[in-house]
UniProtKB/TrEMBL annotation:
UniProt-listed InterPro entries: ATPase_NBD (IPR043129), ROK (IPR000600)
The protein's name in its UniProt record: ROK family protein
Family membership noted in the UniProt record: Belongs to the ROK (NagC/XylR) family.
Cross-referenced Pfam families: ROK (PF00480)
Amino acid sequence: MSHIVCFDIGGTFIKYGVFDPKGNLLVKSKMATPTSHEIPDVLNNKVKLLQQDFHISAIGISSCGLVDREKGVILFSNNIKGYSGMKLGEILFSKTQIPVSVENDVKSACLGEMWQGAVKGKRNAVFLTLGTGIGSSIVMDGRIVNGSSGLAGELGHTVIVAGGKPCSCGRKGCLERYASTSAFVQDYKEQKGVAVEDVSGETIMKLVKQGDPVALLVYEQFIHYISMGLTNVIHLLNPEKIIIGGGITEGEGPLLQDINIQLRKEVMDVYGNEDTVIASSLGNDAGLYGACYLALNRMNMKESV
Ligand SMILES: [Zn+2]
């Protein structure tokens, strides 16, 4: 039986796993992300090691940064120094002689959720990750929307506050300055007015649950802004579901439910009354599943979702 080895390359860790051709994840693990110029060798060594136990016939890569999927090139990454411009697909193929597919991590995670996860069988969905910024990917009629140069779906850089906070993209008032996890943490720190160390989205969510007044205030603003952004998405794209991932959504808590309640107030009634926002079901493995899906597709071992 042939197997597919998949890597999910992030700024801190590289997760990896081996799948069978039916998409069952057989083994998985992770390793620290090395410096950019070491990445191809580290991946090659891992493939060689896995070849002792598996017959590897394809490699799928889900990577942070902007990716040219056709050429397997990392166009831009601000997470890993020196990674921008790397012809990762070509370099890894030259070392392994195994076909390599490369795709952006948010798009991969979205495909994973379409193939085996929270929106399996759905044709229209939007996938969002809340973190330092907001990553997003759009699926319409069962296909990822790429746009003319692969850059469609930058929901984080749509303006929701005219003349608002300055954003890394050069504009003011972008959604990710108000509704990313880092914006949530920043707002909490500003509202607290004193130096707060070691605070994360998850710890603020715990304070919300405990009824902490500052955390609750910041949380209400956060729900307001993210719902405003998502209402725009719903009115524009009419997705069946919107999956929201990222550490802040993983713990127990009312976040997704509160967003759904707010959306019911903002979205036009004609769009229906069902909960649109749902949690990821593959969690941190979604990128690996998507990478496997693309690798299988590239080899014509799997028809489209
Ligand atoms: Zn922006």
